[in-house]
Design brief:
The complex is a heterodimer of chains A (about 900) and B (about 450). By secondary structure, chain A is of the alpha/beta class. Chain A has 32 helices and 14 strands. Chain A is elongated, with a radius of gyration of 33 Å. Chain A starts with 15 loop residues before the first helix and ends in a 5-residue tail after the last strand. With about 450 residues, chain B is mainly β. In chain B, about 5% of the residues lie in helices and about 45% in strands. An eight-stranded mixed β-sheet of chain B has the order 22-23-24-25-30-28-27-26. In chain B, strands 18-19-20-21-29 form a five-stranded antiparallel β-sheet, with no helix packed on it. In chain B, a hairpin with a 4-residue loop joins strand 24 and strand 25. The chains are: A alpha/beta (about 900), B mainly beta (about 450). Chains A and B meet through helix 28, helix 32 and strand 13 of A and strand 1 and helix 3 of B.
Amino acid sequence: MIGSPDLLPFTGSEGFEEERAKQEAWSLPEEFSVPLGPSAQPWSSRAQFHRDFILVAEFSEQVGPRPVLTIPNEQKVIGSFDLNHFSVRIMSVDYQASGPGHTPPSSPGPRLSFSEDSRVMLGDSAEDAFAYVQHLTLYDLEARGMVRPFCIAYVCSDQVKLMENFSELSTGFSQASDSLKTGNRQAFSTELQRKLQELEFRRLTLLQNKELQEVKDESAEGKPEELDVLEYSILNHRELLRQVTSYPNRKLQQPDFLPYDPADSLTDLTALQPPEPCSYLPTSSSSSSPSSYRSENLLKPLEELCNSYFFSLMKEQLVDTERRLRGDRSVLRTCHVTHSLSRRLKLTNFLFELWSPREAEEEEGERAEMEAQGVSGSKTEVQSERQSAEVLISCLEEIPIKLVAEKADFSAAAEMTGSMSSGDSIEVLGTEKSYQTQRVIAETSTGTADVCVRCAAIDAGVRRVRDYAKRANSEDSIEVLSTSESIFPDDLTAITEEEAEHHPLTNGFKDEEELANGWKSDELPPERMKMTWATSENERDDPVNKGESLGEPAADVDDSVTKRIKDIQEDVAPEKAHEPSEGVDLFPRRLRLFSQLHVKLAPPTPVAEMGRRSPPCPPLRLLSVDEMSDCSSFTGSSDTFSPTQGNHSSTQLGRRRRKAGLRALRFIKHHSFSQHAIFCLLSGRPLVVVGGDESLVRKQVDGLSLFLPSPGSDGSAVMPCLTTPLQLSDLLTWRLIGIQRSSSSLSSTILLSVTRYSRYLALLDLDQKTLQSPTYSGSLLSQLAEPHTGFRGGLTYLLHLESCLAALASKALLHTLLAGGVGTERDCLHAQGSFSSECDYRVMHHLSDLIKQRHAGRGPPFLKFSYCSVQLHKNTFAT
Amino acid sequence: ITVKVPGLILQDQGKSPVLCIGEEQPKNCFTELQVLKGHFDIVRFLVQIDDFRCASAGDDGLVLIWNIETGERLQELRGHSQQITAITTFVCRSDVTAHPSLITASSDRTLSLWDPDTANRIQTISDLQSSVKCLLVLERLSLWVSGGEELCVWNKDFQLQCHRQQHSDTGITALIELPKNCLAAAMDKEIVIHRLTLSTDSSVSVSEIHRLSEHQDQIRALISVNDGLFASGSHAGELILWDSISWTTQATMHILWEESQASTQTEIRLGAQKPSEMSIQHLSTNGKVRSAEAVGSGLYVYNVVSRTVVAYRKAAHDSNVLHTTLLSDSEVMSCSEDGSVRMWEIQDLPLPAEPASAGFFGMWTFGRSSKQSGPQSKKVVDIPNLRTLELTGDLIGHSGAVQMFISFKEKGLVTCSTDHLLILWKNGDTQSRLRSLALFHKLEENGGL
């Protein structure tokens, strides 16, 4: 039932790559070969959705898995993709397995288990739909077992993209999941409190009735029982309430944890939510028992399961994650590379808006942290491995999501089996259950091993990061590509020592708390997460593993687990034993792996950079190819984003810049004097844009702002619309100013003030299509602003512009370092032949001045100007 | 000795258009500016403290100390509740060091001594009869003098040595030091000469010894040209050059008006002008040969030795000139109510010399009586070396009248204005080099990039 037809073609005794090579060489008939990966055209995809999106799904106990929420919630994104079907698939994973060493609760009564989320990579290669899925459970008093399983999935047509951005996804989803769960705990405690009140009231009524009855001296044999049940129920609810309200304590140490005040919750939420009619009858044996579940009642929607604040917070976080991961791999990677490189150029990176200082602060803090850890040289490796080992432990400490009441055990187990038996074939590569077992075996079988050997083993595992294989596809298969819990046995051997301290997993609630505090997986740097993930991923790709697992393809779950254990036993021993001696066998494989690494990992450094960023939050994201299509026309797409999303300034930046790029391109193409205007901006002469139409002025300012060096952290050097008369000090603050020309007296005052300072300004009149500015002559700007450029798309031009500006910035740095301090810098530069004209020299000089002022300047800002003649340039281009 | 030429009326643009230099100013080296904010009312005074600091004071009662090398505000001297009326530096000389401090006078009738390093108010005198309008430090005697409705002499410890009540509506508006422990104080239309007597027990007394009443109108400017001469200028455009020791008139000049249409009498035309148009606003001297003066909106350079006008510009600014300085033998700078600062160069006239210009002003050697005789003014024609003031650059930035400026030579120029701002003008190339050095220094300190 849980067979894995997908894996069959690859599970030969030899490596996958060779397999492919053979297939290519022999060119098997179509029916025998399995299509490998996407077709040659890299932009084509079988995916039925048009863009990556985030899906929140629930395993509803009434209707089964169903989609709850998509982000973005647009039909054009999702296309014809069958969300229902996909929900079934991603919710059909065994995310609820319970560990074997789970001790019964010390105190009687119901018990809530606060579990960590499970993270799974799933794939459906038939539809080119891959997903990173994070399963979580929410509490609902009315649900079976008081638990509602949900999952958040990032659905993507590119499996590699998921893997490359795993850490980012994991961080983003963990945040969102934490918000959701926090809000849910609050809502749940409110619900409990209300329920308690209700029960108390009922009890009081019963007691009164009883007194009455006693007075009447009537026999009422049923009543005392009812009272007992009620009191028991009250006790249970109190216990639940205590548990749910005491939960925040264990989380408080985390800086980003948002506690809520349980005292407030009652007043808050009772006011918000309409009081429900009392639906519980005192006759039910126990409300916490599954028997109280009544299917005729519709369960609450997700919105009601969670405090509205946290619900919107969660949505915002998901939207943010989705935006940051927009675009295909190359776009994302280019961004990462650009950022990681520009971040290092401390001297010049402020010149053109390629990064944001906010990000820098984060990174500074992080770097300080890294330095504090004292990672250097060879130590780094060992330490990171140690860290990754810690991750492994944390994986083991997952606590099953289950209500552990005496009566609940049976039904929970039943539910689990239910989830297993969904129609499609599933391959579950690793669950907690299996690894709990595996670990024990690994421990016993290997015992203590030499540290060096262990490190080598892990090292090998880590290096095989990219050695994933394209899975073949079959109609109805879901592949579990990896889970955070799947652990390579080699790694397990390395952690036996650490493990020993933490082994007693769930002795009681207190211990649990401590453990969670000590080892919470999402606290760890993403890099480490990635390593773990990569390591575990490796397991599946290990040909030896595959070769052995091929033996019993039709194993069911239990069989496969036991078989796997067998595999591991076999696997671990040879690995250990042969590592030093089995050079002949191992080497070719390793070599091949390394050669793949070089191909797939280029460039290696940025990837490492990517991994190190925490939380990964690049502000500048470009958009995917399909989105770019709408900007290649000059009409300019209207803003489809709702204003509520506008507060994500960092993610908005990419879109803003793309539009600005388009506007800049239009300016260059449509105005003969564009170079003069750009020269003014680059040489530090403030540019004033005047026009009758305010939106046009703003757009023009927006476009020109790309050329403005050192625009400030939030564009503080740009004034899109000036509403007060210009003053001299304004010219020191703003170097790009928009003014709306109108008939009002204020407008004429402003324009008058502009003419007063005309010496320091350049004036671009949009209505007259004229520019009053010094004339530019030189070669520096010819590439930057070529009026007859072939660029047509805003994004393409933006990229070109960015590279030109980056080149300019590095030239300026060279200029600063070469010419500074030398008396005759001008001669020096002319001797170099860098700048053919005085104008080019002025641009360099200005940029160089900005660099100097930023790094060694004191006092208020300065305005540098020159006394040169100003011409009135008219637009000679027909528009 | 100064030469005065009546300034042209602003509205009279047709005849004598206001100068406009255009945007190309190759000789203007001020290519960088910094705006120094801090005052919230008119800034009227600037004082140089040492070679990199200056103090500014104004109607908000604040005194701010600036580092003109960086533009940073170093100190803020708070204490006066009303506008500052006079400010001067006072060097406290100990045996080894000379420590500069500041004396300020305010309309709140207080005098204060400040330490510009710490912003401490060292001394305060608050129970004055009237507000002080001018201050004069007599470094030689370690004394200082305040002038207002009364003349007070103080020692360096802020102890009143003696005072003398003046009987005048306006009080003392200007004070200069003369040789032989004498002081000249300008009061309305008169210059009063006082003598300080230092007795053996180091007590000081002051006595009035002479009054000079040659001016017909209120005296606006009083400067000491050199050890032997001092000059005064009046609201009516008279300029008199005095001998410092004998207090006799050396030369007198009076502005005449350009005879434009009908040849009416000078006196009549004079009456037709706005008073300020011919008023001598400011006098300055380089202490040697020349003195510059601001008359109305015009600007004149006078050679004290030859008693002749060297060069003039009758419409140097759009509005009244408030302050002038001779930067060097050939460079003059002026600032005006029109918000601009202009730089001039005294250049030889291209031949033929401007013959008609002689008619613009008259010159009388002695006494007002000769003023009636118009033809004498033709004397100017005889001056062979009349040169022109050529505009070499202007600084535009203030949105209000530029009250005063101080030049720190190659380090820059500070201007203050009614728009509450100070502007620091610098040579951009020099600054760029300095910043380069600073950057290299910093990189060296940090050990690399």
